[in-house]
Amino acid sequence: MTPPDDGKLFLEAPAIAMPTYLQEIYAWAYLNPRNVQLLDRDLVVSAILWGNSGRLGRAVLNELRPGVNVLQVSHVYGSIIPNLARLVGPSGCLEVVDIAPIQVTRCREKLAPYPWARVRRADARDPGGGPYDAVSCYFLLHEIPDDYKGAVVDALLGVVKPGGRVVFVDYHQPPPWHPLGWVMSRVFDALEPFAKSLLRNGVADFATDSGCFHWRKEAYFGGLYQKVVAERRS
Questions:
Q1: Pairing mode, if any, of strands 160-171 and 213-220?
Q2: What would the DSSP string read from start to end of the chain?
Q3: Beta pairing class for 117-121 and 160-171
Q4: CA distance to 13, 66, 75, 77, 207, per residue, from 40 (Å)
Q5: Cis peptide before 176, with omega less than 30 degrees from 0?
Q6: Chain segment 135-170, per-residue pLDDT in tens
Q7: Which of 95, 85, 90, 42 has the alpha carbon at shortest distance from 64?
Q8: How many whole angstroms separate alpha carbon 186 and alpha carbon 192?
Q9: Residue 7 has pLDDT above 80, yes or no
């Protein structure tokens, strides 16, 4: 299933406003061209995730199968998005949306070998497209304000087909004994001002109508990370 050429079914809106929080808090990581080149490496991603990037990426892939129509919300550094494209394969379709033009360009470069994948500019609160068999939201929720969290969760739940699933992988509140708990708390205070609300609340708590979905959760690395899957009831 080869995706349509850009512009035939979707019009990328040049008037999409760049979120203030992205410009003020994360410009160094996602909008600075030099740092984008530096950070978009598996070695860097693995270090940030304490060696768990491969395991967490596989946690997403395990929820998918070849031939499905998948939406990935936001460009993710490292190799997870090319891995998604390879898994979906030419009988499926992968769409990636990101609000930052530099991230759209970077992701298109990475997905050039996979003609069944496409990247377009969109706000995660209104991704467009669909309906999809599956949606992947990988380490996005902890980076966005709470009002964005609710809007993004609702939007992603809204574009998945009956029987389809939305896969969220992100940080989780570790138990008190976790040796990295205090370290991550300080990292969040310094660099991730919206992360701790995700630790205090379940992903389903941000959904307006969570009852239309079956929710399941799995914790990783002693509870520091989580995978939450919302399956739309048929």
A1: unpaired
A2: -PPPPTTTS----TTPPPPHHHHHHSHHHHT-HHHHHHH-SHHHHHHHTTT-HHHHHHHHHTT--TT-EEEEES--SSSHHHHHHHHH-TTSEEEEEES-HHHHHHHHHHTTT-TTEEEEE--TTS-----EEEEEEES-GGGS-HHHHHHHHHHHHHTEEEEEEEEEEEE----TT-TTHHHHHHHHHHH-TTHHHHHHS-GGGG-S-GGGEEEEEEEEGGGTEEEEEEEE--
A3: unpaired
A4: 26, 26, 10, 5, 31
A5: no
A6: 999 999 999 999 999 999 999 999 999 999 999 999
A7: 85
A8: 9
A9: no
If you search the block for the tokens 């003609």, which residue do you land on?
Answer: 115
How far apart are the C-alpha atoms of 112 and 101, rounded to whole Å?
A: 16
Q: Count the neighbouring beta carbons within 10 Å of the beta carbon of residue 187.
A: 14
pLDDT score, position 2? 45
Q: How many residues does the chain have?
A: 234
Are 180 and 174 in contact by the 8 Å Cβ rule? The answer is yes
Token digits for 1?
């299933």
Nearest 5°: the CA angle 61, 171, 142 is 105
Task: Give dist(CA 226, CA 114) in Å, integer.
Answer: 29
pLDDT in tens, 75-130: 999 999 999 999 999 999 999 999 999 999 999 999 999 999 999 999 999 999 98
Tokens 């029987």 locate to: 163
**Residue 222 and residue 175 in contact, taking contact as beta carbons nearer than 8 Å:** yes
Q: What percent of the chain has pLDDT over 70?
A: 94
